Amino acid sequence: MIFRKEYLTLYAVTNRVHAVRESLYDQVKAALSGGVTCVQLREKYMDDDRLLEEAVKLRDLCHSFGVPLIVNDNVNVALEAGADGVHVGQEDADAGEIRKLAGRDFIIGVTAKTVEQAGRACDAGADYMGVGAVFPSPTKKGAIRITKEELRTICGSVDIPAVAIGGVNPENMAELKGCGMAGFAVVSAVFAADDVKAAAAALRGKAEEILREEEMFQEEK
């Protein structure tokens, strides 16, 4: 699946701690039905066999909605499962090496918290950046925070698009207007909701509204 920046509009990152009343598969299906535009399988405590099993199931589910599946960190599982891409942190596999291994159409996302990291990701051939944490994150309590000014600077420093991540929810996402991101990554705002589909639909609407204003802001500059 060839990368398009529109996939970043509402980027859902899984966390099975929230899959209490239903399976991870059913939660992702509800999120897709609500309008998420990308799914990242991020389950740090699954072994490779279980992760592969989930990735294969979610790949087919995501593709039935025309949405890419990204696997967090584990390049081998992503490739074996036929996932559309992988997202790596600064201490994970190098984006340039992944590109050589996986080919041009494989989607590569890289976490970037500084302009320097963003530049390296761009030079290595990454398709997009994940930038944050932009708010206190209930999922990654020790995550390094970045300011709105830092988000704006990082987004404007390279040509590849960025998705803002970290504690994003319906109440605070509008605070990021004017920062230059191409979309919003969410975890608990979707998967911890009582009604996952409704939460995703509401967030998709808010995201699109903010990004329309973002485009107008950029055009006026």
Describe the fold and architecture.
- Strand 1, helix 1 and strand 2 (38-41) form a beta-alpha-beta unit.
- It is built from 8 helices and 8 strands.
- The chain has a single domain (5-220), classed as TIM Barrel (Alpha-Beta Barrel), CATH 3.20.20.70.
- Helix 1 (24-34) runs parallel beside helix 2 and helix 2 (48-64) crosses helix 3 (75-81).
- It has helices at 24-34, 48-64, 75-81, 95-102, 115-124, 148-157, 188-191, 196-220; strands spanning 10-13, 38-41, 69-72, 85-88, 107-111, 128-131, 162-164, 183-186.
- The chain is globular, with a radius of gyration of 16 Å.
- 42% of the residues lie in helices and 14% in strands.
Topology:
Blueprint: E1 10-13, H1 24-34, E2 38-41, H2 48-64, E3 69-72, H3 75-81, E4 85-88, H4 95-102, E5 107-111, H5 115-124, E6 128-131, H6 148-157, E7 162-164, E8 183-186, H7 188-191, H8 196-220
Parallel strand pairs: 1-2, 1-8, 2-3, 3-4, 4-5, 5-6, 6-7, 7-8
Helix pairs in contact: 1-2, 1-8, 2-3
> Can you give the mean pLDDT?
93
Q: Unreliable stretches, pLDDT < 50, 5 or more residues?
A: none
CATH topology tier name: TIM Barrel
Largest sheet: 8 strands, parallel, barrel
Based on the structure given, which CATH architecture is correct?
Alpha-Beta Barrel
State the helix count.
Answer: 8
Fourth CATH level, the homologous superfamily: Aldolase class I
* C-alpha termini separation: 33 Å
Number of strands: 8
Overall CATH class: Alpha Beta
Query: What is the helix/strand order?
Result: EHEHEHEHEHEHEEHH
- Give the strand content: 5-15%
Number of domains: 1
Helicity, as a percent range: 40-55%
How much is the radius of gyration in Å? Answer: 16 Å
What structural category do the secondary elements indicate?
A: alpha/beta
